[in-house]
């Protein structure tokens, strides 16, 4: 009876379900699918509607006594407002996907410069000058920058496998050039259509390229303030470079956009959930495509079959990055190359922008306390934005983060907070090093120019002989110098400059010439002794100033401990003379 009752109940339930129209089932399926997609894509349309389409407020993290905030960031209107995403892109995944596929970039035409670094690698520098943007309106433009031009220069460091053609790079470059600034994109090695010309590849911690490019630009355009912007993995490289250099860096200000901060935490994050694993596979495909462009070089340095079989960024780093860059393990590479370890040493005004819903660079890696402890850093976070997306407007024609970067740089350029490079103090001079050995009289500059250098101590015949020899070797022929991919030719003016310098020293008496009297010989020997002990005296004075009383205690201990030994040595040397003296004989007889 119970079984018959149960069957009858099931039959009744099926009959009741059959009476429901199919369109109701379709509607329910659509509701469930929408709820799943809303959750899976992390949509925030309803949240924006509940907030009255005002967007999320920008949260700022900074030190209470930070002059960078009070004098610079406080004047940036966009940092004290709200960010509202484009309604039909109200998802971090949709923003990131739309940026990678389309992005609606403005039309930009670069001027390319090939730069050769010290190890033989080649970097493509793509320029967009403020005059180029003005020339688009019909005015003439020669496309050059004079060495005394004071127009600020913005150096852009793109993200992983990105170059100057990326949509977000074009948005930034176009905005800064339209504000009257010169912009240069430092493409990574092997990107931008340039082949690998050395055995070095870029990675998330490779700062040598940005260091050489910045130093080159600073030397070529010394009057132009340098600003830098790093995006995604380029932000990690930039912040690491800022921390490595400290005060001795020719950067006036910087901005970090969507930095991964901690590569180890980020690596674990993108392998955690299904949607993140999709990003991981997409990044691995991009890395393998980059590797195929340079297969002849990479196959010689690493296991090519293992590289092509990589299914994640971690596997690619294991088979390629760690082998080429000589890291023991992948975790070692991630730990050593994470920019979060260098934040405390950043001395340049730095604006950091991150989205809390970034699907690649998790909020778990953001170093909140480290940013708050550094007076030079202002951290701006938004609830939404995706990875480098931050689209705004109904047509998604603008990226929000470009505006605060432009405002921050403009306010910083007009404020006293702009960083000034501090030269590093050299160590103590060796006591055996004379002033003659400090450097050549013909100095080879970084830009390929040769200039005459005068020394402080030019009273000895050795310095004159070296100088005259250098001048004689240079006369009669031009000198071609090629360094860092730039060739410079010496003209006759450089030769005449060296000759004029030598002409001022012709009246210095030679130590090998005849000496008229004993007084002159004694005076000359005294001068030589004084010149010889001058470096020692200078070093001792510097050591005393740096160490204080400890030097005097050290001298006292040295004298006390060595006095008996010196007395014994003196007695041993003069014992025969002591025995032959009359007082000694009387003492022995008595």
UniProtKB/TrEMBL annotation:
InterPro entries: AB_hydrolase_4_sf, AB_hydrolase_fold, Hydrolase_4
Spans annotated as Disordered: 492-526
Biased composition annotated in UniProt, kind: Polar residues: 492-518
Domain Serine aminopeptidase S33: 152-364
Segments traversing the membrane: 551-574
Keyword field: Membrane, Transmembrane, Transmembrane helix
Family recorded in the similarity comment: Belongs to the AB hydrolase superfamily. AB hydrolase 4 family.
Protein name per the record: Serine aminopeptidase S33 domain-containing protein
Organism: Triticum aestivum (Wheat)
Top-level taxonomy: Eukaryota, Viridiplantae, Streptophyta, Embryophyta, Tracheophyta
């Amino acid at each position: 009876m119970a079984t018959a009752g149960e069957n009858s109940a099931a039959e009744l339930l099926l009959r009741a379900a059959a009476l429901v129209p199919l369109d109701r089932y379709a509607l329910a399926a659509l509701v469930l699918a929408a709820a799943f997609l809303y959750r899976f894509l992390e949509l925030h349309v309803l949240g924006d509607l509940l907030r009255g389409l005002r967007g999320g407020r920008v949260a700022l993290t900074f030190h209470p006594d930070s002059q960078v905030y009070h004098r610079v960031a406080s004047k940036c209107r966009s940092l004290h407002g709200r960010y509202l995403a484009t309604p039909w892109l109200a998802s971090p995944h949709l923003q990131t996907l739309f940026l990678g596929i389309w992005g609606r970039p403005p039309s930009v035409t670069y001027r390319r410069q090939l730069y050769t670094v010290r190890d033989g690698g080649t970097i493509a520098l793509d320029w967009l000058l403020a005059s180029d943007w003005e020339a688009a309106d019909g005015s003439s433009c020669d496309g050059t920058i004079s060495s005394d031009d004071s127009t600020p220069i913005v150096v852009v460091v793109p993200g992983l496998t990105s170059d100057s053609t990326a949509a977000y790079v074009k948005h930034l470059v176009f905005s800064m050039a339209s504000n009257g600034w010169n912009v240069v994109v430092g493409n990574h090695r092997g990107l931008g259509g340039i082949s690998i010309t050395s055995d070095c590849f870029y990675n998330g911690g490779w700062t040598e390229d940005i260091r050489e490019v910045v130093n080159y630009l600073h030397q070529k355009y010394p009057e132009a303030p340098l600003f830098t912007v790093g995006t995604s993995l380029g932000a990690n490289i930039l912040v690491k470079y800022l921390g490595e250099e400290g005060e001795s860096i020719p950067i006036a200000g910087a901005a970090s956009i969507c930095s991964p901060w901690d590569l180890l935490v980020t690596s674990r994050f993108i392998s955690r959930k299904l949607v993140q694993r999709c990003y991981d596979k997409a990044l691995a495909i991009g890395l393998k495509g980059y590797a195929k462009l340079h297969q002849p070089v990479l196959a010689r340095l690493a296991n090519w079959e293992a590289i092509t079989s990589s299914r994640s960024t971690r596997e690619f780093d294991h088979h390629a990055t760690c082998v080429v860059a000589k890291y023991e393990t992948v975790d070692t590479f991630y730990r050593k190359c994470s920019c979060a370890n260098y934040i405390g040493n950043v001395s340049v005004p730095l604006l950091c922008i991150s989205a809390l819903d970034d699907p690649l660079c998790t909020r778990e890696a953001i170093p909140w306390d480290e940013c708050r402890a550094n007076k030079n850093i202002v951290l701006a976070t938004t609830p939404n934005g995706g990875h480098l997306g931050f689209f705004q407007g109904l047509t998604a024609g603008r990226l929000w983060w470009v505006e605060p970067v432009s405002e921050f740089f403009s306010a910083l350029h007009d404020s006293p907070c702009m960083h000034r490079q501090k030269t590093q103090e050299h160590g103590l001079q060796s006591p055996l090093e004379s002033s003659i050995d400090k450097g050549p009289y013909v100095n080879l500059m970084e830009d390929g120019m040769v200039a005459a250098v005068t020394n402080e101590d030019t009273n000895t015949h050795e310095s004159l002989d070296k100088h005259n020899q250098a001048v004689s070797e240079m006369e009669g022929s031009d000198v071609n110098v090629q360094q860092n991919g730039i060739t410079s030719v010496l003209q006759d003016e450089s030769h005449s400059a060296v000759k004029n310098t030598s002409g001022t020293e012709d009246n210095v008496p030679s130590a090998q010439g005849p000496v008229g009297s004993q007084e002159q010989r004694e005076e000359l020997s005294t001068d030589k002794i004084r010149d010889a002990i001058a470096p020692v005296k200078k070093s001792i004075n510097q050591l005393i100033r740096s160490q204080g009383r400890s030097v005097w205690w050290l001298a006292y201990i040295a004298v006390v401990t060595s006095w008996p030994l010196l007395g014994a040595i003196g007695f041993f040397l003069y014992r025969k003379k002591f025995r032959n003296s009359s007082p000694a004989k009387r003492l022995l007889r008595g």
